[in-house]
Structure formats: C-alpha cells, structure tokens
Design goal:
The complex is a heterodimer of chains A (375) and B (306). Chain A has 375 residues and is mainly alpha-helical. In chain A, 71% of the residues lie in helices and 6% in strands. Chain A has helices at residues 6-21, 24-44, 63-75, 86-95, 108-114, 129-156, 162-171, 175-209, 211-217, 222-250, 260-284, 288-305, 317-325, 327-341, 345-369, and strands at 52-58, 78-82, 100-104, 121-124. Chain A has a four-stranded mixed beta sheet with strand order 2-1-3-4, sandwiched between helices. Chain B is α/β, with parallel strands linked by helices and 306 residues long. Chain B has two domains: 4-220, Rossmann fold (3-Layer(aba) Sandwich), CATH 3.40.50; 227-288, Alpha-Beta Plaits (2-Layer Sandwich), CATH 3.30.70.100. Chain B has twelve helices and 14 strands. A six-stranded mixed beta sheet of chain B has the order 6-7-8-3-9-10, with helices on both faces. Chain B has a four-stranded antiparallel beta sheet with strand order 2-1-4-5, covered by helices on one side. The chains are: A mainly alpha (375), B alpha/beta (306). The complex binds adenosine-5'-diphosphate and magnesium ion.
C-alpha cells in the first residue's frame, strides 16, 4: 500500500491555495456572508425593539402631559404621535400604524395637583407580546416614578424630568444584555454556516469539473486529499473569525474578559469539526446543489438544539442529549464563557473535549466516505 | 516472445441492469500501439477505467503490467499514464502548476527537471505560464499527455485523446505517440478516426461491451475476406442512397469524389453495382477493402447474432 505522505498533503494544500487565490470573488463572498449574517441576526434577533409608534390622545393639555410624554419618549421605546380623537387613534392601532395608544384623561393636571393619582390609560397591541414586553415594563416603571415623585415637584411648580430618566436607565435597559447573549452565540452560528458551505465545494467541484477522475487516477490517498483540502480553509475560517470578533467587539460592544488565544484555539477545533463534516457531505453529494442541501439539513438541528435560539435548559432531555453531541452547543458555551465570564481553560475543558472528539470522528468518517474508485 | 502489457480475461461490468462490459478479454503485447475502437457507448471508457483501477470489475480479472488487476491496483496506477476522455486538469492553474501538482503527487525526484523536459518535448514550454483553461483544444490534449508522461509510465491509456482536435494537431499528437512506442512504451488509445486506427499495430474493436475483433490492421482486413468497389462520376449521393439498403452491400460511403462499396459476398456486391441505374455515368473499379468496411460488417454481424 502507498504510505501516508506529508509531501502529497502539501501538494494538495498548495493546489487548493492557488485555486482559492485565483477566485477572489468566492473569497470575498465568504468574508462578506458572515458579516451580513452577523448584522442581520445581531439586529433582527433583537427581542427588544425600540421606537415603537405610539398615539397620544390628550384631553388635557398641560405641563404634566408634556412631562409624561417627554419621559416616555426619553425611554427610547416610544415615538409619540398626537391624534385628535380616541376613535382615530384606535383605528390606527387596529391597522397596526401604532402599537400603543396613550390617553391623557380630562382634568389630568388638576387631579395631579390635588393628589388624586389619576390614571393614564395605555392601550397596547399585544399580538406580539415579546415586541412590546420591554416597552410596557418601561412604561409601568415610568408611571410609578411620575406619580410618586411628581406630587411634591408639582407643588413647587416646574416638573423636573432628568432624575426619572436616570432611575429608568439603571433599572430598565435590558437591551445590552440581549445583544451580549446573542452575539457571542452568533460567532459559532455564523462560522458553522460559512465554513461548511465552502468545504462542501471541495469535492463536488472536482467532480463537476471532471478533475476528480484524474485525482483518483493519481497515487494520492483519501486522508491526504482531505487534509490538503481542509487546512487552507482553516486559514479562511480564522480570517472569518477575526472579522466576526472585531465586529462583535467594535459594533456590538461585546466585552472580551477571557483569553483571546484560548478562544481562537477553541474556535479552531470548532472550525475543524465543520470542515470535516462539510468534506463528508461533499463526498456523499454528487452535485454542489445536493451538498448545500445537506448543509442546511445539518444546520437546522444545530440552530434549534444548541441553545442558540432557545434556552438549552428549557429543552426536553432527548433534545438536550442531541444538543450535547453538536459542536455548536459547546462552542456557544465557550464563546459566552470566555468573552462574558472570562472563563479559562479549566472552565471550558468540559466543552472542549466533546468538540475535539467530534472533529476526530468526523475526520475519520470523511476520510472513509471518500472512495478511491469511481464505482 | 514478448510479454503482455495487458492480459485480461472475461471482464464484466454493469451499471444497474446495463451490461457495459460483457465478458471482454484483451491481450496487448508490450511496446505496441493498440487502437481501441467501437461506437459511442460500446464500453471503451469503462474498460480503460477498469484497467487503471478506477472501476472494480464485477467479474473476470487478469494482469496489467504483470500485476494483478484487482489486488495490486495502487501499484498499477503508479506505472500507468491515464489520459481521460474529458480534459480533467485544473483550468484555474497554469500549465506549469498543473504539472507540478502531478509531479508532487507521484513524488517524482528532480521535479523541476522532469517538468522542463516534458514541457520541452511537448513543445509546451512557451505556454508554461498560461492558465490551462485558456488553452485551445489541441494544447489542452498536449498538456494532458505531458502530465501523463511525467512519471515515466510503462503503459499509456489514452481515451479519445484527439477528439475535437484539428488535423495538424492530430498528426503531431500521433507522431509523439509513435515516438514513445518506439522507446518501448505500450499505448492503448481509443479513437473514432480510421486513419488513426490504421497507424496502430493492433486493433481492438468493441460493440456492446463485447470484443468484435482484435489483431493487426492487415490481419483484420484479410480475415474478413471482403471485396470492395469504387465509383467516380456524377450524382454519387443518389447511388449511395440506392446501394446502402441493398442486402448484398455491407458498407457504402463517399470519400471525397469516390463512392466506396464493400461486402463479403463478391457476387452480391457485383449484382448490386450492376443495376442499370447504378451504372449510368458511373465508372466502377475494384478497390482495397478498408478497415471501416470490416467494422461495419462485423458490427452488423454481431447485431444480427444478438
Ligand atoms: N458510472 C456510470 N453509471 C451508469 N452508466 C454508465 C456509467 N459509465 C458509463 N455508463 C454507461 O455505459 C455505457 C458505456 O459507456 P462508455 O464506457 O463510456 O462507452 P464509450 O467510452 O465506448 O463511449 C454507456 O451507455 C454509458 O451511458
Ligand atoms: Mg468513452
């Protein structure tokens, strides 16, 4: 039998690198794709939307009304639009033009001055509860502050708004927390997508252009082809990683509390998992189209069961079991752990070795699924 | 006696229910150029792939370069140069880069020298820096041949190397093959061109995955015992249309200004061309039967039997 030859791995590697260089469009795409995904997911998955259109129907134009609406607008959740009548405002709510209708009752100012605690009626479009959850929380908190603190202030004359705002910000601005949760997870999701997509081309491209027959006729072994084809893409995967990390830190303000080299090492293992899997798909599939479909097929459970979309510990036992096998689950925990909690090697080890095991297993499967004949 | 470069018996290969190679036995002596002929789909490519270990036969076996076809496939691959029917090098690599890749995979010592030698021999040196994908058909074939020769194989398997290449490039390509055979290389080359078949020392003709005939060109023609006549004159096409369906005529075709008719039964052929309308204005004379007359005849025979 032909012995394993590092020189041949190098030959395949060099050939792949040249082909990669000669195809800048694909390289560009593989760098832009993760960015687009990062921004799409980073903002689209934001479960805490702001600037929600709000109708204001006022039966009592007073400085208190101005205080309340200004405070609401200052939370950032409400964009206030005055409406002349309740009917028109409610029609706008039904059409979905506004998500809230705020009614200032008649004699609002007088009631406040008398200390009668008049109520402000806020109607909300609750068809999408998550969309308005944070806004209503902010509204409730604001109501309390306005009524509790406005009385003494109103007796003195001019209402002061800045103190309320400060209190609201401290207690109710969960937006940052959402982004912090999502973006480190996104690193894994985006990487698994972009790396797998490129490797699926590895073998199918040889097959579709007809070069496969020649490659098979030459004395190169499956492991050599696999390694030679995977290694250049690890480099590309790292380039993507740097890009994603940079955007995460610079745009989404994700803190880096742990060691970056450690994170890069863990991500390297994760990239290897994906490449081996992608390589396997590309040996199974006969066309690039089929390979892409296999990737979608593999990514779906990863999305669902890794704890990216839904909290991992909210899933039933069988789903968690599958989740534990998936590399994305582990890389998600590692990313969040290293970036947000400043975890070191001992803390991430329980997530690192299952991923390493997966990489090796996938590599073996990949090498075996590559047939040395055309049968 | 000379050793056999290819000696296989009763090869069989099916794809699903389609028997593509059906009990094929071949013997090719070392140092010969052997033409591999047969219509499209007759199983030439499949047979060549079996010979270089790219396909496992369903049945049968034998030796290639003295090595067992099935058990020692990796060793056979190292000593065989296989040129695929479809250009299968990397279009986005230059000629030199393609050759370097091949040389590295075969772990050829003195790579640079081996590459520059083969580039020189193929006349490819001025095009070494060109992208393979940008070469014309004829140069692509040369590059593919160069890549097959790098590791100094003892057996060349060329699958329709000159399909779609102009006449001059074809002739030059064949001059190269002839040179290499003179140096002791065995060449099995599939082709559709009769002029190429006539340059082969040995011919193997396949139909439906079965061997129809194998031997030297002269022996094949001689053994078929055919007679041929040629006519010149006006409106050869009309005569051709009349003669083709005639049961006495096995093969009829026009070559330039000559109508060529052949068959196995002299009397039947003569009767056909003696029809008055085939005599009008035409001038007939006896001719040498051609190789393709024999193939058409053998093909009809084998179709008649199955
Ligand atoms: N991998 C394959 N799967 C299914 N059918 C095949 C395959 N390869 C070849 N064939 C069929 O086998 C027949 C012989 O093909 P081939 O050996 O390429 O003939 P030739 O080279 O003489 O034209 C054709 O009908 C072809 O369609
Ligand atoms: Mg063919």
């Amino acid at each position: 039998m032909t012995r394993f030859s590092p020189a041949r791995v190098l030959a395949v590697l060099r050939k792949e690198s040249i082909q990669m260089r000669r195809d800048p469009a694909t390289i560009g795409l593989t760098m832009i794709l993760p960015l687009i995904q990062l921004f799409l997911f980073g903002y689209a998955l934001n479960a805490n939307p702001r600037h929600l259109p709000t109708a204001l129907v006022s039966a009592d134009h007073s400085r208190y009304e101005r205080t309340v609406t200004a405070a609401l607008a200052n939370t950032g959740y409400f964009d206030i639009h005055p409406y002349p009548t309740v009917q028109e405002a409610q029609a706008a709510l039904a059409r979905g033009d506004v998500l809230f209708v705020l009614r200032i009752p008649p004699d609002f100012a007088r009631s406040v001055d008398r200390g009668e605690k008049p109520s402000l009626l806020m109607e909300a479009d609750a068809t999408d509860p998550t969309a308005i959850a944070h806004a209503t929380a902010a509204m409730t908190a604001l109501n309390a502050s306005v009524l509790n603190r406005d009385l003494p202030v109103s007796l003195q004359g001019e209402p002061v708004s800045p103190p309320y705002e400060a209190i609201l910000h401290a207690r109710y601005n969960p937006e940052q927390i959402t982004a912090l949760n999502i973006v480190p997870g996104l690193i894994g999701v985006v990487l698994s997508f972009s790396t797998m997509v490129i490797t699926t081309l590895a073998i199918t491209r040889e097959r579709e252009t007809g070069t496969m027959e020649n490659l098979l006729a030459m004395p190169v072994r499956p492991v050599e082809v696999m390694l030679g084809k995977i290694v250049p893409y690890i480099g590309l995967g790292y380039a993507q990683t740097f890009l994603i990390l940079a955007v995460a830190v610079l745009v989404f303000d994700v803190p880096v509390r742990g060691s970056v080299p450690l994170l890069l090492f863990a991500l390297g293992v994760f990239i290897a998992c994906n490449l081996a899997l992608g390589f396997t798909f590309s040996t199974i599939a006969t066309t690039q189209m089929q390979a892409q479909q296999l990737v979608q097929f593999a990514l779906l459970p990863s999305f669902m069961l890794s704890g990216f979309l839904y909290p991992f510990y909210g899933m039933p036992a069988w789903a968690r079991f599958i989740g534990e096998v998936l590399p994305l689950t582990h890389v998600l925990r590692i990313c969040r752990g290293v970036l947000l909690k400043g975890n070191g090697l001992p803390e991430i080890l329980p997530d690192l070795w299952p991923m390493a095991l997966f990489a090796v297993a996938a590599g073996v499967v990949a090498a075996f699924s590559y047939h040395e004949t055309l049968d | 006696m000379t050793a056999l470069a290819i000696d296989v018996h009763d090869l069989r290969k099916s794809f699903g229910s389609l028997k593509v190679v059906d009990g094929l036995s071949l013997q090719v002596p070392e140092g010969e150029i052997c033409g591999f002929l047969g219509g499209n789909g007759s199983g030439k490519t499949t047979t060549i792939r079996i010979l270089c270990g790219l396909l496992t036969p369903d049945g049968g076996g034998g030796t290639c370069l003295g090595l067992d076809l099935i058990r020692r496939a990796p060793e056979i691959r190292r000593q065989v140069g296989y040129m695929t029917q479809r250009f299968s090098f990397y279009g986005d690599l230059t000629v030199a880069e393609n050759l370097e890749f091949v040389a590295e995979l075969y772990e050829i010592p003195n790579r640079r020298r081996a590459i520059s030698q083969v580039l020189e021999r193929m006349g490819l040196a001025p095009r070494a820096a060109q992208l393979a994908g940008a070469l014309s058909g004829g140069w692509k074939q040369r590059m593919a041949l160069a890549a097959c020769l790098l590791h100094a194989p003892r057996l060349l398997l060329l699958d329709e190397p000159t399909a779609g290449v102009d006449a001059k490039a074809r002739r030059e390509f064949w001059d190269l093959i002839t040179d290499m055979a003179a140096e002791g290389m065995t060449v099995l080359v599939s082709t559709h061109y009769m002029d190429e078949a006539e340059r082969c020392q040995r011919i193997i003709y396949l139909a439906g995955g079965r061997l129809v005939v194998q031997g030297t060109a002269e022996a094949v023609v001689r053994d078929a015992q055919m007679v041929a006549f040629e006519a010149t004159g006006p409106d050869l096409e009309a005569a051709l249309r009349r003669l083709r369906p005639d049961p006495g005529v096995d093969s009829a075709a026009i070559f330039g200004h000559v109508l060529h008719v052949a068959g196995t039964d002299r009397e039947a052929v003569v009767r056909a061309i003696w029809q008055p309308e085939n005599q009008a204005g035409l001038e007939w004379r006896e001719a040498q039967p051609r190789l393709d007359d024999v193939f058409v005849h053998l093909l009809r025979q084998s179709e008649g039997m199955s």
